[in-house]
Amino acid sequence: MSKRLHIKKEVLRAVYFNDSLSCAEISERIEKSIPTTMSILSELMKDEIIEEAGYAQSSGGRRPITYSAKADAFYIVSVAMDQLITKIAILNFKNEIVSKVFEYDLVLSQNEQALKNLTEYIKESIKKSAVSTNKILGIGIGMPGFVDIKKGINYSYIPSGHETIASYIYRNLNIPVYIENDSTLIALYEQKFGTTVGDHNAMVVNINWGIGLGMIIEGQIYRGYNGFAGEFSHIPFFNNKKICYCGKYGCLETEASLQVLVEKVNDKLRAGTIPSSLELLTQRNEEENVAKIAEAAMNGDKLVLETISEIGYDLGRASAILIHIFNPEKIVFSGRGALFGDLWLPSVLQGINENSIPRLAEATKVVVSKIGANAELLGAAALVLENGTKVLTNNTIFEH
Ligand SMILES: [Zn+2]
What we know:
Layout: H1 3-16, E1 21-22, H2 23-30, H3 34-46, E2 50-55, E3 65-69, E4 75-81, E5 85-92, E6 102-105, H4 114-129, E7 136-143, E8 147-148, E9 153-154, H5 165-173, E10 177-181, H6 182-192, E11 202-207, E12 211-217, E13 220-222, H7 258-271, H8 286-298, H9 302-326, E14 330-334, H10 345-355, H11 358-361, E15 365-368, H12 375-387, E16 390-393, E17 396-399
Parallel strand pairs: 4-7, 7-10, 11-14, 14-15
Antiparallel strand pairs: 1-3, 2-3, 4-5, 5-6, 8-9, 11-12, 12-13, 16-17
Helix pairs in contact: 1-2, 1-3, 2-3, 6-12, 7-8, 7-9, 9-10
Bound molecules: zinc ion.
Zinc ion (ZN) is lined by residues 234, 244, 246, 248, 251.
């Protein structure tokens, strides 16, 4: 890629990840001179990729003009997969979802057809959104399992034969594809748009059907030697003789996950010793079960609150490990479980405080993300911007 195109991409990223920035702010972020930045900005405006966005707030002196991304300059296809459901949405350059969020039942476990199905669903979603394919910058996909982003392979799900997942989809749709582990995407979302913007060292715990972990170390997402870092769910943590799906005993997720939350609530409902507004949770769709539990929690249901405290305490104990090893400035509880909001905090903090050295623990802020249901989709879009090698000029996409 030519040097100028490289700078252009840096400018595009800067305006994409911020609502609006002045030329001076962009020049500082991309570490290029103001004249160079200004000349790139002019080109991007001529190409109708960015636009002027009014004057900046100023504490005195002349207020500078700011620039922001032009919403319809290009689009990104975001895909958020879990073991059962795949969500697909089209986002514009202002990071707004402009299509419906399409939902597909796609069971990943032992599904030889998963990749073929996924490709068809993406194709169908693009078609329904009516966005022109030549305006699509890329497809970002977050998926569970052991994802090797360098090789483009998922070792747990979505078998791709002799090709990579990315090359299979590219061959069929002719749009570049970037894949990532779901918890890393949640961390990317928090880093770019959420609770850890500007933090250099933060741990993002993804409370989901398991417990994922995205690590922001020295401002970068840390992926480990071959991309598998952050398998928090499978640290050996309990002497409970419970076998985990990974085949080992006593992993963190055998006592602490949303799956376990549903099981524990049901066990207590069956035992009938604590009054509750809930009836036995029998939905096949675990998402609906969790939604019911969350509603009861917000209404102060004693049985549910007690169960959240038990799991929260164990998450706190496990977080003590993160605090001792990484000394993070922040631990963020994010992902689907953030639905319970600050209800996690008292027990999580108790678990941390009882199990960590105060000097370390007091340096770490603990927060629950204000994440919405679509965070992974936004993270998937950020993934495309982070890694994309395409650059737009004159409303056409050229690859360099
Ligand atoms: Zn395990």
